[in-house]
Structure formats: structure tokens, C-alpha cells
Design goal:
With 297 residues, the protein is of the alpha/beta class. The chain is built from ten helices and ten strands. InterPro entries: Cas1, CRISPR-assoc_Cas1, CRISPR-assoc_Cas1_C, CRISPR-assoc_Cas1_ECOLI, CRISPR-assoc_Cas1_N.
Length: 297
């Protein structure tokens, strides 16, 4: 990427100031008169074309039955807008072309911290402190996970009481997720949405998704780390609010209710901007005019 070429670099709206995710399905993402559009219902009696504000959103999620043109990909890349092909109701992610970064300072800092075992556990303890509200003396990751797990169970119960929902525990069958009760399904969908927001924040800073400090095996380990920082305040808020509506007689599907709730919460609480700030805090990276200044945790 050539920084500043044709003024495109300065023309981009920072992801911290964008509106997050937009969901499109069963249509074609294309360029008409230099602008991004989504043409849907071509073979129906009511075809329609929507103009997509690609500079004002961070990621476009393309659902089943969708296609994308070369011109559309070029326009998205030019403005730093991400795109992902997802499954029905967003329960699977098939592919997402990377946002090509113009910087490497955050990635180098992350690799430096991750590559040193003592620094890695220090960052993990810092992340647990942000989640639990206190610095735990333990340095064993399994012990920290056990403590966090017991507290999460208590938070589930408290959130269920707050929203007047009967809570029978966290249950999730990966092979058949629809067998779970409404609150558990809502948590699954909300977690997917928050992970999508975390992926945007990680890519916006050009951090390395695979190098997690708490999660280890996933190819999105650092994304999961950041998403977990917002589980209590954002994920469960979205999930239990949507579950409350579903259990109160709203006829919309639970995934639709969660998506609407997530869209509102992301916008009102500037979730992606907050995630970007959290990443800087976790990696101890202060930025000014695109330059990172490091200090050890």
C-alpha cells in the first residue's frame, strides 16, 4: 500500500468512528456510478437496489445467496472496509479477505509480548483484571480460567434475574445449537456478533488475530480475548435483552432480535471504538499521529 497515494489514506474514516456491521443477503454487491450498491430480488416481482454506505461501516456481512463483483472488492479495499461471507443467521464465517495494513507497530508489539512467556502471562493477568475488577495473585493460566469461570456463572444468574428470565444454566450443543433454550441461543448469537466487532477492532489496528494471551488454539485467539473483555457488559446485555423480548411474545426469530439489539448497542455505546482502546491498553500501546510508543506491562 502506498501511504497518501491520491489522498486515499487521509480520506478514510477511522473505524472507531464508523457504525460497525451491516448484514446483506440474497443479492449482488456491486458498484453503480462509482458507489457501492446491493441489488436484491433480481428474479422476483419486486427487485430493489440499496446504496451501501461503505465508508461509514466497518464490515459488510454477506449472507447466503449473495455474490460480489470485482469492482466492489476494489472499492472496499480502497476505503478499508472489511467483508465476510457468513452462513445462515451468521452462525458460520466462511471467508473474510484481510484488511491490508499500512503499519506494523501494533503487530510487532503484540508479537514481542506474546513471544516472552513472562510477558505473556502478565498480559493475560492484566486482561483478567480488566474483566474481574481486581488483580489476582495467581500466575497459572488454568487457575485464572477456573476463577473466571465460577464468576461468570454468577453473572449469568444475576443478569437473568435483572431481566426476569428463568435461568437453568449455560448449555450449548455445537452439533445442534437450536436445541438450547431461548436465553442460551441468544447468548450464542450475541457472542457471534461481539466476536465480529472484535475482529474489526483487531484488524483496524493491524494486530495479529492468532496470537492470543488467554485463548491459544483458535486462529482467532486474540479476537476471542478482546471479545471476552466485553462479555459481561455487552454480550450478556444484548443476549438477555433479546431473550426477554422473545419470551414476552415477540414473534421475530431470536437471531433477528439479537442482531437488532446488537446493532443498537454497538452504535449507542461505540463498542468498536471501545475495543480499539482496550487493545491499546492491553498491549500498552499509546498512539499519536499513527506512531506507537511502547512501555512494558
Amino acid at each position: 500500500m502506498l501511504k497518501g497515494r491520491l489522498g486515499l489514506e487521509t480520506a478514510r474514516i477511522p473505524h472507531a468512528d464508523r457504525h460497525g456491521l451491516i448484514w446483506l443477503e440474497r443479492g449482488e454487491l456491486c458498484v453503480i456510478d462509482g458507489c457501492l450498491h446491493f441489488a436484491a430480488g433480481k428474479n422476483s416481482l419486486t427487485p430493489h437496489v440499496l446504496q451501501v454506505p461503505h465508508q461509514a461501516v466497518s464490515m459488510i456481512l454477506l449472507g447466503p445467496g449473495s455474490s460480489v463483483t470485482h469492482d466492489a472488492l476494489r472499492l472496499l479495499a480502497r476505503h478499508g472496509t472489511l467483508m465476510a461471507a457468513v452462513g445462515q443467521d451468521g452462525v458460520r464465517t466462511y471467508t473474510a479477505p484481510p484488511l491490508l495494513p499500512d503499519r506494523s507497530d501494533v503487530a510487532r508489539r503484540q508479537a514481542e509480548l506474546w513471544g516472552a512467556p513472562r510477558r505473556r502471562i502478565s498480559v493475560a493477568r492484566h486482561m483478567y483484571a480488566l474483566r474481574l475488577g481486581e488483580v489476582l495473585p495467581h500466575r497459572d493460566l488454568d487457575t485464572l480460567r477456573g476463577i473466571e469461570g465460577s464468576r461468570v456463572k454468577a453473572i449469568y444468574r444475576l443478569m437473568a434475574e435483572k431481566y426476569g428470565i428463568v435461568w437453568e444454566g449455560r448449555h450449548y450443543d455445537r452439533s445442534n445449537p437450536t436445541t438450547a433454550d431461548i436465553p442460551n441461543q441468544a447468548i450464542n448469537h450475541a457472542a457471534t456478533a461481539v466476536q465480529g466487532a472484535a475482529a474489526i477492532a483487531v484488524q483496524a489496528l493491524a494486530a495479529i488475530p492468532q496470537l492470543g494471551f488467554i485463548h491459544e488454539d483458535s486462529g482467532q485467539a486474540f479476537v476471542l480475548d478482546i471479545a471476552d473483555l466485553f462479555r459481561d457488559t455487552i454480550t450478556l446485555q444484548i443476549a438477555f435483552s433479546a431473550a426477554q423480548k422473545a419470551l414476552s411474545g415477540n414473534t421475530d426469530s431470536i437471531d433477528r432480535l439479537v442482531r437488532r439489539e446488537a446493532s443498537m448497542v454497538f452504535r449507542k455505546q461505540s463498542v468498536i471504538a471501545a475495543m480499539i482502546d482496550k487493545i491499546k491498553l492491553v498491549l500498552r500501546t499509546e498512539e499519536a499521529d499513527g506512531v506507537g510508543n511502547d512501555r512494558d506491562p
